[in-house]
Amino acid sequence: MRISRTLLGGGVALLGTIGLACGGSGSEPRASATTGASAPAAVTAVGSPVSLDAPLLVHGLPACLPPGSTVAGSPFAVNADPITNGGGAAGISLVPAAGDIHKGGNNLVLGITDVSGQPIGNAKVRLTFYDLSTNAQKPFCQLEPVASAPGTEEAFVHVHEGGVQHTHGGENADRAAYYSHVAFPKAGSYGVAAEAILADGSHRMATLLLQVAEAPAVPTIGEPALRSDNLTKADVTDIREIDSGDPPNDMHDLKIKDVIAAGRPLVIVFSTPAYCTSAFCGPVNQEVEVLHDRYKDQVDFIHIEIWQDRTTSTLNPTAREWLIRADGGLTEPFVYVIDKNGVIFDRWEGPVAQNIMEESVKEVAAGATYKP
Question: Please, what's the b/e burial string for 212-230 (b: 16 or more CB within 10 A of its CB; e: otherwise)?
Fold first, then answer.
């Protein structure tokens, strides 16, 4: 079985069906933040298969190993080319859960769905990536991604600084996606084969065609962060003007430009808790709130609401500045980590949970800075 380029249309169409990312539209493309910026650091698998005691990690996310490599504790048998050799029965689909995939290093997030299009969590997954630029379609990267399921931890009461309480957690554990760090050496078409061991012990496999762009569509790792003059509580008469959450969170005291000028590390979450069609924005916000409570003495946190006026589809100017693509589209949620030098240290698109984010937040809290 070869990877068909016709899979691209089906995979992208499923993005809206699964609800792993939500989108909007806007009238203006973002100002270019990529001009003159250095490319994100890339970890590319080369050479013969290796045997490791632990996976290769980039800020806590599994990165590429040569196909056929082994990692201690893996539930998968050695299989350098599951497309040719077979990696499981049909019955699942592999779908992209984020849209900005580009040459160089990516925090790639993919979802797995069942035959009815519902997401599957609690799976063990191995991904094999194929370069489709030649007829050989050789695998060049293999890894086991980490599951991310925001809001699925045991329910607990979160207390805001003003004393308001609400419940976090308790979401369906199947509302999950799978993150890894993949470096694409060039733009073009790539195939992905996902081998999955489901919770019932069955082995399944699915393939997907990914289109990798020459450059990122929105600000990415290694670029200077935009020095935005975002609205804060001090700029509005009602905090609900800048936060659709119920209750609003505690991340509206600071301006991005001021934090960067002060040399403080920063986490920015772009989301619209009340209007996100995927229903992931609220849980992602809650995951960031937990990190805020844990690291707020070392790292500043800012939430940017997507909509200035949802009834007229008017975007918040700061969301437009960061997230509008050249085609006028927008996806969210996004979470950015900015180092003390004002450089984007890490970023995630889609249903990201604290287990994915915390390593990078911890690193910038300790003074780490971006290094090409």
Answer: beebbbbbbbbbbbbebeb
